């Protein structure tokens, strides 16, 4: 209601992707408002984080490991009390269906608990003393400084926390700006943050990205830019830092993960996995399958089965039973997807499924486009929404060449009966991307597995284990044998 933290300044309304009737007209539902912070508050936040890192009362970076863990445990206990409200906000703010909203919350709690356990293991290891050439050393991992965390709207809780939590537990201090959609759901946690961490350790900024992140970067006080989102935002922010070459980056960016369906694939399995891979959360996942290559011998059967399966999905409100397709949080997305469809059709593709491209309020029914060619925008763009380009291939070299030429390199899904026997192909694939999924769709989890990408898809790695290393540096005290 704009009264957060006794804020008396300007506020901005927050709208839902879900329309309701207001004065006889259906409109995006107004959910509340948030403070519109600007340069002065942004600079104050980064100064507070800097102060808490260098000279903070709580001495966060030098606090005993057990005490930092205890702060994190207090936080997660308080966070669990807010589950019902946060799950409801996930549904209303970003239109994520109920099971997936619950999963996002529970997965985040598990991520925090696993991070605590992994950190304890790391700390036990650092107790070992080393001796080389008469020099004793106690090697351990230490923090990097102030981290600016920016998470995406498709996982506004989980992926923001996958950056923030490992950064904090390693002893860094942080400024974080909630995602544009999925911002209200941070508000039930404000007290938990305040009561669990010393002043200045976690600084939360509400406001437009440009209004708050730009002045923060210009101060030069950010040591790590941690962002999951679009490379254009990462590049723009990095460029604002006065010493951008010294800035540490932890980035999860775009991807265009392909599915490759070999002639001997189990087509029912491939269809089911491609449905989950292309369309869970309406295709708004960096790990989504964003292009399908099907061998020409089986293309007709695969296309028919796949198009039918897309049209058999249920569209509805997030809290309705068995709903997979839901309203899209970005108001401009249906028109953008329509533009991709129009471009593909003008260049010779057709929509294979009857419902494909039909609109209703903030929603467009997923369109399966075939045959897609490389001059089409839907082939070159990371669509991040409900439209699925399908191409055929004669020889496996065709999709492999496309992957080699692509700017992205996150994951691939390979479907075929004997895929496990295709060792040379799998070796080639794993050198083009970072994860090869055999007879299954692409995904990030389980969170103990490395989550990263090659080329423009990522910088750094974000599993529970790896994130602790991404947000730290190895340090030691050496003493001579005398
Ligand atoms: O949007 C990118 C996310 O990392 C996707 O995560 O595969 O668990 O849905 P997910």
List the keywords.
single chain, 482 residues, alpha/beta, seven-stranded mixed sheet, six-stranded mixed sheet, 15 helices, 22 strands, globular, binds glyceraldehyde-3-phosphate
Whole-angstrom Rg: 24 Å
Structure class: alpha/beta
User: What is the CA-CA span between the terminal residues?
Assistant: 66 Å
**Major sheet details:** 7 strands, mixed
Flag low-confidence runs.
none
List ligands, each type once. Answer: glyceraldehyde-3-phosphate
User: Beta fraction of the residues?
Assistant: 15-25%
User: Count of helical segments?
Assistant: 15
Counted beta strands = 22
**Largest sheet, order of strands side by side?**
12-15-16-11-10-18-19
What percent of the residues sit in helical stretches (DSSP H or I)? Answer: 25-40%
Principal-axes geometry comes out as globular
What is the arithmetic mean of pLDDT?
A: 95
Give the topology, please.
Elements: E1 11-22, E2 25-35, H1 39-54, H2 65-80, H3 83-94, H4 98-126, E3 130-132, E4 135-142, E5 146-150, H5 158-169, E6 173-177, H6 190-196, E7 202-204, H7 209-218, E8 224-228, H8 231-240, E9 248-252, E10 257-261, H9 267-279, E11 289-295, H10 299-311, H11 333-346, E12 350-351, E13 359-360, E14 363-364, E15 367-370, H12 377-380, E16 387-393, H13 397-405, E17 408-409, E18 411-415, H14 423-432, E19 435-438, E20 454-455, E21 458-459, H15 464-470, E22 473-480
Parallel strand pairs: 5-6, 5-8, 6-7, 8-9, 10-11, 10-18, 11-16, 15-16, 18-19
Antiparallel strand pairs: 1-2, 3-4, 4-22, 9-21, 12-15, 13-14, 17-20
Helix pairs in contact: 1-7, 2-4, 2-6, 3-4, 4-5, 5-15, 9-10
The structure holds glyceraldehyde-3-phosphate (G3H).
């Amino acid at each position: 209601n704009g009264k957060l933290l006794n804020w008396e300044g300007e506020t901005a309304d927050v709208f839902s992707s879900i329309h309701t009737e207001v004065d006889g007209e259906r409109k995006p539902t107004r959910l509340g408002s948030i403070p519109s912070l600007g340069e002065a508050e942004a600079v104050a936040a980064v100064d507070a984080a800097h102060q808490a890192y260098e000279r903070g009362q709580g001495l966060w970076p030098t606090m005993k490991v057990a005490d930092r863990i205890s702060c994190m445990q207090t936080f997660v206990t308080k966070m669990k009390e807010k589950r019902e409200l946060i799950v409801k906000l996930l549904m209303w703010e970003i239109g994520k269906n109920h099971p997936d909203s619950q999963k996002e919350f529970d997965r985040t709690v598990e991520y925090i608990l696993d991070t605590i356990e992994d950190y304890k293991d790391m700390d036990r290891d650092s107790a070992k003393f080393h001796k080389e050439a008469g020099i004793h050393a106690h090697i351990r991992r230490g923090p990097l400084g102030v981290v600016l965390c920016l998470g995406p709207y498709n996982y506004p809780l989980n992926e923001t926390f996958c950056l923030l939590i490992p950064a904090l537990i390693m002893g860094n201090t942080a400024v974080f700006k909630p995602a544009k959609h999925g911002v209200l759901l941070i508000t039930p946690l404000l007290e938990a943050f305040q009561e669990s961490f010393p002043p200045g350790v976690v600084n939360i900024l509400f406001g437009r990205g440009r209004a708050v992140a730009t002045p923060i970067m210009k101060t030069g006080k950010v040591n790590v830019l941690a962002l999951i989102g679009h490379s254009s935002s990462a590049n723009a922010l990095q460029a604002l830092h006065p010493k951008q070459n010294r800035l540490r980056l932890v980035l999860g960016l775009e991807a265009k993960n392909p599915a490759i369906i070999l002639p001997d694939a189990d087509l029912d399995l491939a269809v089911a996995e491609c449905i989950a891979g292309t369309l869970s959360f309406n295709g708004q996942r960096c790990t989504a399958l964003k292009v399908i290559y099907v061998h020409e011998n089986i293309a007709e059967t695969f296309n028919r089965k796949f198009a039918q399966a897309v049209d058999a999905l249920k569209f509805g409100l997030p809290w309705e039973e068995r709903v997979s397709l839901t309203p899209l949080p970005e108001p401009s997305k249906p028109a953008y997807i329509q533009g991709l469809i129009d471009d593909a059709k003008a260049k010779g593709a057709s929509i294979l499924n009857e419902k494909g491209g039909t609109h209703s309020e903030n929603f467009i029914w997923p369109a399966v486009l075939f045959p897609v060619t490389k001059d089409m925008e839907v082939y070159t763009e990371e669509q991040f929404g409900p439209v699925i380009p399908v191409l055929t291939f004669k020889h496996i070299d065709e999709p492999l060449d496309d992957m080699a030429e692509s700017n992205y390199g996150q994951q691939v899904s390979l479907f075929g009966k004997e895929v496990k026997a295709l060792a040379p192909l799998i070796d080639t694939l794993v050198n083009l991307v970072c994860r090869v999924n055999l007879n299954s769709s692409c995904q990030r989890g389980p969170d103990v597995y490395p989550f990263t990408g090659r080329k423009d898809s990522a910088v750094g790695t974000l599993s529970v284990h790896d994130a602790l290393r991404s947000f730290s540096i190895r340090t030691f005290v050496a003493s001579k044998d005398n």
